[in-house]
Amino acid sequence: MRLRATLGALSLSASMLVTPSPKPAIWNLIAQKPQGVDRIRADQWHLRYLRVDQAHKITRGEGITVAVPDTGVDPHPDLRNNLLAGKDFILGGVGNGRQDPNGHGTGMAGLIAAHGRSGRMGALGIAPRAQILPIMSSSANNLGEADNLALGIEFAVSNGADVISISSGGGTNARLTQAVRMALTSDVVVVAGSGNLPFDQAVAYPAREPGVVAVGGIDKAGRHAAVAVAGPEIDVVAPAVDIYSTSIDGKYRKGTGTSNSTAIVAGAAALIRSKYPHLPASEVAHRLTATAIDKGPPGRDDEYGYGVIDLVAALTADVPPLGFGSATAGAPAHTTSTATAIAEPDDEGDDGATARGLATLGVIVAAGGAWALIARRRRRGDDPPPRVSR
Fold first, then answer.
1. What CATH number is associated with residue 169?
2. By the 8 A CB rule, do 238 and 308 touch?
3. Which of 46, 56, 76, 104 is catalytic?
4. What is the per-residue pLDDT across 267-316, written as a single tens digit (0 to 9) for each?
5. Are 23 and 6 in contact, with CB atoms under 8 Å apart?
6. Is 104 labeled as catalytic in the residue annotation?
7. Does 259 participate in catalysis according to the annotation?
8. Which one of 36, 139, 282, 317 is most buried, counting C-beta atoms within 10 A?
9. Per the domain annotation, does 242 fall within a domain?
10. Domain Peptidase S8/S53, which positions (predicted)?
């Protein structure tokens, strides 16, 4: 069974969506020039929108590993210090995931953990001291077998991933469903994108799997992104329009789609896991939803889920645990009056993340309070037919 490997119906211009083609994920490549490097941080509007600088006074994702099953990850200068050796499941299973013929996986990894260059230059990720476990599970034409994604997820779990960021979607099969559920029961935060119009008409798999953090998108004005699929499974939203990140061959790229918002939320999950190393994966997801900024109709809705992620609140709020009293995944949280801050380091390339001092405790269980995050969601009965090459 094939599924489209990217959820980035990416823009050729700020207002024109790519029409279906054999390569539905097309970004604007930005040549590596001094002025390009200088301006890239300023072009990353989502950093300011999400108050990333304030979140980085609390944590930068130290000690956390985020797996990116995608088209592989190129060792971009803004990212390579955080890049582990991973695995290829497309090229005969012999590579280490540190090559990317397409650039999509490199872009997603950069949104999560790019460390930039000295002097606040280059791209910056949400968790710039997290490490990326690169996995090539999709081919250069943005298509991948569901079985390859399943292999990538299994590899991520067996190699210590704390978060898995899945900017892909489609139908599913028994192998992929089993892999996703295995990750959830192994105390891994699984984040996946809802999908993009016109390629997707309903929330894609694995985003619709109970327990997965399903991510939609917003534009620069904080409104529902026109490209993002809406549905009852959406948990949270994040910036998805005109997002700048790393690409192959030292270049940068701009794109639009829920691939981007998914990677951003995965970075947020990495920050939470770094700040709260004892917190089980289900509680990390709960923090994301409980502290989200409500948008649209009051309460959860199909476009925004519980709202736009709030990094600072997710790191500082007093959030009752799942199953505590009448608290639910959508209950509002109380932010602390002061945040425990660390000195903000320069945006220089790191030599890798430091080891996490304490391991996370607890695993997600398939019943009881840990599943309260998704208990109130309405689920569709049947999977859509698998998507094929366009």
1. 3.40.50.200
2. yes
3. 104
4. 999 999 999 999 999 999 999 999 999 999 999 999 999 999 999 999 99
5. no
6. yes
7. yes
8. 282
9. yes
10. 61-307
